[in-house]
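Design a sequence for this backbone.
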């Protein structure tokens, strides 16, 4: 459905992305991850025909993005980082305008607009000026314009920016509903969002792909992955630290900045986490709270932040 071959983009002397290669199959929901400046938005803009690459190819539904731009644009719905909305238009009128721009057949425009409004819960504000909407509702209008032509491919760049927790949950549910109906690339910094909605991830760092893996196999994306676990206890946390250092798999145990907090680094084994929790309880230190860093976050930091240090 989407295929990228040796994609490279230079901005003057700076290389934004270098020799990217990946495929996204029909119906997949793929998370495209990376720190700021990694090249995510540049890649999205090339795939959607917004800008040309320095070298390489991008194909959507078998059509080359630059040899057959109109065929590609008919099949893509794109939400860039900043939603492309016109503040002086009413929501419904704007969506009808976008549908016309995307060459939706006239007799289908009304139904397509209605479907986009329903999917993004814009009904209560469909007759309001976009400039008078909250940032969260403007973001939803941006998602609606990506959906209004019922495209085969959806490319969403930070779709939940500016939304409150309830709206974020609604957008996650929407992406789940669209799974299978559309092929989706979701570019985001929010790792729980990826875990909730995506089947596979691509991690990019400093313009290069450093991992491509299904979420179920993410632990294999990097070797020697460690897990961060934090505890909060009532008493004797200094004695507890010495006991934790003797647990198999523990690499480091130190006092945290908050009173009674302990930070532990250990290998990624679930057995080690279980042993760690058991040791804390048996120590009599009075366990109040335990938190374990998500596996995806472990891998992401290992491949991006860790790579930047070496």
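Sequence:
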């Amino acid at each position: 459905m989407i295929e990228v071959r040796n994609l490279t983009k230079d901005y003057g002397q700076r290389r934004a992305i270098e020799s990217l290669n990946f495929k996204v199959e029909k119906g997949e929901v793929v998370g495209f991850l990376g720190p700021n400046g990694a090249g995510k938005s540049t890649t999205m803009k090339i795939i959607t025909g917004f800008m040309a690459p320095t070298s390489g190819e991008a194909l959507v539904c078998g059509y080359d993005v630059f040899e057959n731009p109109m065929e590609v644009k008919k099949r893509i719905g794109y939400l860039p980082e900043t939603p492309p909305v016109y503040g002086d238009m009413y929501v419904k009128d704007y969506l009808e305008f976008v549908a016309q721009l995307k060459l939706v057949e006239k007799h289908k425009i009304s139904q397509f607009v209605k479907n986009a409004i329903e999917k993004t819960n814009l009904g209560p504000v469909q007759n309001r000026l976009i400039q008078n909407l909250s940032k969260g509702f403007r973001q939803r209008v941006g998602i609606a314009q990506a959906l209004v032509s019922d495209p085969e491919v959806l490319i969403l760049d930070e779709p939940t920016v500016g939304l409150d927790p309830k709206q974020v949950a609604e957008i996650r549910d929407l992406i789940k509903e669209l799974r299978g109906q559309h092929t989706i690339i979701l570019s985001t910094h929010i790792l729980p969002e990826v875990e909730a909605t995506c089947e596979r991830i691509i991690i990019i760092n400093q313009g290069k792909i450093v991992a491509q893996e299904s979420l179920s196999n993410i632990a294999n994306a990097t070797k020697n992955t460690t897990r961060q676990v934090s505890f909060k206890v009532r008493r004797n946390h200094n004695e507890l630290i010495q006991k934790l250092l003797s647990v198999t798999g523990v690499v480091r145990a130190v006092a945290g900045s908050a009173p009674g907090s302990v930070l532990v680094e250990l290998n990624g084994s679930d057995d080690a986490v279980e042993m760690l929790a058991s040791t804390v309880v048996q120590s009599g230190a009075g366990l109040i709270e335990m938190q374990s860093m998500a596996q995806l976050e472990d891998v992401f930091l290992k491949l991006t932040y860790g790579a930047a240090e070496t």
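The chain is about 35% helix and 30% strand.
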